[in-house]
Design goal:
This protein is of the alpha+beta class. Helix content is 27%, strand content 34%. It has one domain: Thiol Ester Dehydrase, Chain A. It contains 4 helices and 6 strands. The chain has a 6-stranded antiparallel sheet with strand order 1-2-4-5-6-3. Helix 1 packs antiparallel against helix 2. The two termini are 26 Å apart.
């Protein structure tokens, strides 16, 4: 089990545990703080993130900014990867294809789901993680396909001997 998933399972059942976990994610990746993500569900192959509509994420017409929604999508895909990629492997985002479907006039929920979950191999492989950004009525406002390159970790000099 990944250390991220272990931490989630440790914190999430406790009062304010999901908030503390989400705060920890933002400590590790500070730019995510711009959307104040609240991770509400996490398991291998699945991550759900909420973000409140507030002035800092508004665009010029007062709706949830499309690029802020992309940031929510990246949080969801990244935390999914942290919970799903085994400790023997590493991952890095290498691409994102985004479709702006509708204006978001409410808070949003980002849902990243990779089912079935691929088995990492000995060679680098690209995992395409679909992410849906939904408004509070469940209507999609942004959809994204985030490509993650998953590869075995390089062996260190100590591990080689």
């Amino acid at each position: 089990m990944s250390s991220t998933l272990e931490m989630w399972r440790k914190f999430s059942p406790r009062p304010l545990g999901t908030r503390l976990f989400s705060w920890g994610v933002c400590l590790r990746a500070p730019y995510f703080r711009t959307v104040r993500p609240h991770i509400v569900r996490l398991e291998p192959g699945y991550c759900e993130v909420r973000s409140k509509k507030r002035r800092a994420v508004h665009n010029h017409i007062g709706t949830f900014h499309a690029i802020a929604a992309c940031n929510v999508a990246e949080v969801a895909a990244g935390v999914l990867a942290e919970a799903s990629v085994p400790a023997t492997h590493r991952w890095i985002p290498v691409g994102m294809a985004v479709r702006y479907v509708a204006k978001a006039s409410t808070d949003v929920v980002g849902v990243a789901e990779l089912n079935p979950l691929p088995e990492p191999g000995d060679e680098p492989a690209d995992w395409v993680v679909p992410v849906r950004i939904l408004d509070t009525s469940g209507e999609p406002v942004v959809t994204a396909d985030i490509t993650l390159r998953v590869s075995p970790k390089k062996k260190t000099a100590a591990a080689k001997s």
